[in-house]
From TrEMBL:
Source organism: Caenorhabditis remanei (Caenorhabditis vulgaris)
PANTHER family xrefs: SERPENTINE RECEPTOR, CLASS J (PTHR45907:SF19)
Source taxonomy: Eukaryota, Metazoa, Ecdysozoa, Nematoda, Chromadorea
Record protein name field: G-protein coupled receptors family 1 profile domain-containing protein
InterPro entries hit by this protein: 7TM_GPCR_serpentine_rcpt_Srj
Keyword Heme set for record: no
Family matches, as Pfam families: 7TM_GPCR_Srj
Alphabetically ordered keywords of this record: Membrane, Transmembrane, Transmembrane helix
């Protein structure tokens, strides 16, 4: 069921937000002025809430609603799963050694960061642009530009967070980027890797 939802919900949203001549006509002039490209020549998903036919507005509101609901459900599921993992680990803490408990705490920190990063970097800019558009508030192109940069930064921040929060990975990265220490012994040069 989750796999089907993961596959079909984005397809439905893309179908609802897909371009038609009415949407292209509505957005083409401003898109051409800002980006100097005809909107028909790029992949574009367009939501138009006002100034178009009622069917186009209904499709846009439906796409927004599905996106908003599914994004929030997935975020809530992630928070719930994190909570359940913490509860299971807490119940079994007496059966674990100090080392295993330490590893589990690192796991929880890493999972928390991996929950927060996509929420901040991907969902907030998406919701902000959609909600401002929904209420007809003009935000210029800066918010879309910031959102595009944040989407790109996500692929860098996610592994970086794991390196920061998992000491074994952190030590390995430090070892790779540090200079080896060398010292002299009589008639022998020993190079000690970092």
């Amino acid at each position: 069921m989750i796999s089907a939802a993961h596959y079909y919900i984005p397809k439905v949203i893309m179908l609802l937000m897909g371009g038609n001549e009415e949407k292209f006509g509505y957005a083409s002039k401003s898109f051409l002025e800002v980006y100097e490209v005809d909107i028909r020549e790029v992949n574009a998903f367009i939501n138009v809430y006002q100034g178009t036919s009622s069917i186009t507005s209904i499709l846009s509101y439906t796409a927004f609603s599905i996106f908003f609901i599914t994004s929030n459900i997935s975020l809530l599921v992630l928070i719930l799963l994190r909570y359940l993992i913490i509860q299971i680990l807490y119940k079994n803490k007496d059966k674990m050694s100090e080392k295993v408990r330490s590893l589990h705490q690192q796991l929880i920190k890493a999972l928390t960061v991996q929950l927060v990063i996509p929420s901040v970097v991907c969902l907030i800019p998406s919701f902000l642009t959609l909600i401002l558009s929904l209420f007809g508030i003009s935000y210029g192109s800066w918010l879309s530009d910031v959102a595009a940069v944040l989407y790109s930064v996500f692929s860098f921040l996610d592994p970086l967070s794991i390196i920061v929060f998992v000491p074994a990975f952190r030590r390995k990265v430090k070892k790779i980027f540090s200079k080896p220490e060398s010292y002299l012994q009589p008639n022998v040069i020993v190079v000690k890797p970092a």
